[in-house]
Amino acid sequence: MKILALDTTSGACSVALHCDGHTSEQFVRAERDHTRRILPMIDQVLGEAGVSLSQLDALAVGRGPGSFTGLRIAISCTQGLAFAADKPVLPVSSLAALAAGVRREQPHWDAAPIVAALDARMQQVYWGVYTADAPNASLWPEAVQDPQQMAQRLAQSSLPTPVYGAGAGWHYPELAQVPVAEVLVEAEIHARDIAELALPLWQSGAAVAAEDLEPLYLRDEVAWQKRQKIRSK
């Protein structure tokens, strides 16, 4: 099984190749430099493995939520490659990938729930809750909320303890009192974790055609819902 994975949903830019059980990755922190870096990184990862686009089974990409600009870069690059090679695409939640990466790097967190949170700017947070049993799906729908709303939701929850936190969204002071055992604010999204999460999606038949690939912004969805409510009054 050969899957090429891309991610530019945040300040980092990463490319990974899962090739028959082995995963290699290129990762750089490249704020505002994704466009220049992504294609050379793809060439390097494929070249080092001796794999061509035509030999891939599928491409995987961090579908969001995340930076609007970063998501457009990753989605458009993935679509272009998938069209060129006539390959399907596996969209992976960027929040799920963040949680999976932290679980990989922090084995002592074991199977505990991880609250992955990205800074959505404008005093809001993208977040979801992930377990080892279902790493691709948040226990609650992924959301964009004010930090205070997120804190209240977690304080009122009945999640099994301990609970851990990961991601830059945790920097807001309102989240300091949330009952979590440990928080890694510096945690980042890695394409290698997108590739690993793509494997069960492939097995379950979740691949989509390149033309059907769409980013998940969340904030756009919230704005649309608000407009619909206003129009219905």
From TrEMBL:
Keywords: Acyltransferase, Cytoplasm, Transferase, tRNA processing. Residues 30-151 form the Gcp-like domain. Gene3D superfamilies: 3.30.420.40. CDD domains: ASKHA_NBD_TsaB. It comes from the Bacteria. GO terms for molecular function: acyltransferase activity. The keyword S-adenosyl-L-methionine does not apply. GO terms for cellular component: cytosol. It comes from Microbulbifer thermotolerans. This is tRNA threonylcarbamoyladenosine biosynthesis protein TsaB.
